[in-house]
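User:
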Amino acid sequence: MLVIGIAGGSGSGKTTVVRALTEQLNEKVVVLPQDSYYKDSSHLPLEERQKVNFDHPSSIDFQLLVDQLAQLKEGKTIEQPVYSYLTCSRSKTETVTVTPAEVIIIEGILIFTCAELREQMDIKIFVDADDDDRLMRIMVRDIEERGRDMEAVMSRYSKVVKPMYLQFIEPSKRYADIIIPQGGHNKVAIEIIAATIEKALHKKNA
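Assistant: Predicted structure:
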């Protein structure tokens, strides 16, 4: 079993990289998105929930993520939580059943900020992208998927996303074994990484 961490700023193209690697790897792959592990805020009034800083490490239930990753590595099945950005809460009734696989990919903006999580990763990848490109992707995503308007997106970017990127995410790049420039559009890098993963997996299983 190989555990791969894929980090990078919001809108950098992490999801594109994960999708491309999943398609290229012949082995079964499971993905643990950091976004599923946001702490539940359902006990707060909706107005307070909407003020949650999703780009700060304290917003993530890292202990649950670490515990569930350890269970997968032990060959156990887990029930991954389901988190809604629209309600800013974790589902009380719905989970996603995840079974162990040869390759486990953990994906998220803050995953390299947790030392205990980093220690369980065999390969750490940071997806780098131009700030303007990331902003454009954030705008499209937040308007289409999260119900925000242009003003709200720009306000959040300037007050939260950019400062948190500079404080936590960009510095975590130093933990990466591999840095992918040009985000998810770098097909050559993705092909090389897929080949590297396959080689490391075969070596580990030998």
